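Most newcomers find our protein records easier to grasp once they have seen one. Read left to right, the backbone structure tokens trace the chain's path through space. Nothing more is needed to start thinking about how sequence determines fold. An example says more than a description, so a record of this kind follows:
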Amino acid sequence: MSEAVADIGLIGLAVMGQNLVLNMNDKGFTVAVYNRTVEKVDNFLANEAKGTKVVGAHSIKELAAKLKKPRKVIMLVKAGDAVDSFIKQCMENGFEPGDILIDGGNSHYPDSIRRTKELEAKGFLFVGSGVSGGEEGARYGPSLMPGGSTAAWPAIKEIFQKTAAQAYGEPCCDWVGETGAGHYVKMVHNGIEYGDMQVIAEAYDILKRGLGLHEDEIATIFDKWNKGVLDSFLIDITTNILRFKDDDGEPLVTKILDSAGQKGTGKWTAIAALDAGTPVTLIGEAVFARCLSSIKSERVRASKVISGPLKEPFRGDKQQFIDDLEQALYASKIISYTQGFMLMRETAKEMKWNLNYAGIARMWRGGCIIKSVFLKDITAAYERTPNLESLLFDDFFNKAVHKAQPGWRRVVAQSALWGIPTPAFSTALAFFDGYRSEVVSANILQAQRDYFGAHTFRVLPGKENSRLPAGQDVHINWTGRGGNVSASSYNA
């Protein structure tokens, strides 16, 4: 009989799994490891984990025997069926009610909701945890976003918070919420990541095609930005990318095919936003920009037959325009995070999750792909007002966007005149202008819907009369030929 010596187990010794094990070992925890291809266990112990306290297991049953109770195991395997398969194997091979099964993969949050309910019904505890930071984050401190069975948190809190990145003296990990909340927050994180990457790419395009700057010059600008309000992991690595040369001295980035891939988490965020009826427009445009980039051959054909504006040399103040671009990037990021937190707020209401928004921003301040100085300000905003309706209602961000507005508008206008696409910058500005508008053009939409489909409309307060009663769904016979029966009302 194996002795129960391990504080936590891990299934799945791919790159992320191996690095997370070594990280937990460094923090003083004994980790038991298992992999479906058991040779990987022996190879790991003989090489990367040599000289550590890591212990190996050649079966799930052996893994269970080596874990202290309540048993805790992290699965870092491919999302989907593989997770369900390992959960089943654990439950059938030595794991007992009260034990904690943790999915650390990129699972879709509805699966985590289902798994939490199914496992709790059998007496087990389930945690679906977002893990962000890639290979380096896993090794030296990721951002961890656990949610699921709340009763599991006290048993895993110390391990998770010591393993996580530390920023401003605090762990980039806290309990997110019930059922699928952990993976939901990770999904929104990934969507925001799509948006951040897109606005940076658009800034590069404007500097490259608009101002005609070389990658070395653009890198210098990004380097300067990285010392101010835009200080972030993504700006930092983009600076390094722009300076990286191929063997012939040319910037390597100029040789990369402009067709972007995606694994689906940004798309999940956009779909979730549509389902919730929340205007998360910047992330949506970032996803569509990748889709547009992927039809490269069609774009090549279009470039030969569809003309745009004639490229005029920039005659304005170049430094002023670069400063404007910095403000446009900052303002667009504020809008993206505003939308992301709006989406989390709406879903939390629907799911009855008690999300800690300051805690979520705190978790993202280090260890993850979107880590930035900016998140310190978001944390402070939600600490000031835990139930903050919108970041734009916070005094700090309200002033920041107000200051950025003139430059932001000049950048979007100039880019349109150049014919340079700025889907993220433009949609952020359109959202901002729509959000701050007391009246928008949806009255026309409602009239059209009622005209062709009898979908009804409501009357503006103060405009009621005998024909247009207050607080009721009204249908008008617009042509004199239609009837007075209205269609059922629903939200699309």
The two ends are 60 Å apart (CA to CA). The chain has a mean pLDDT of 95. The chain has 19 helices and ten strands. The chain has three domains: 8-175, 186-436, 446-491.
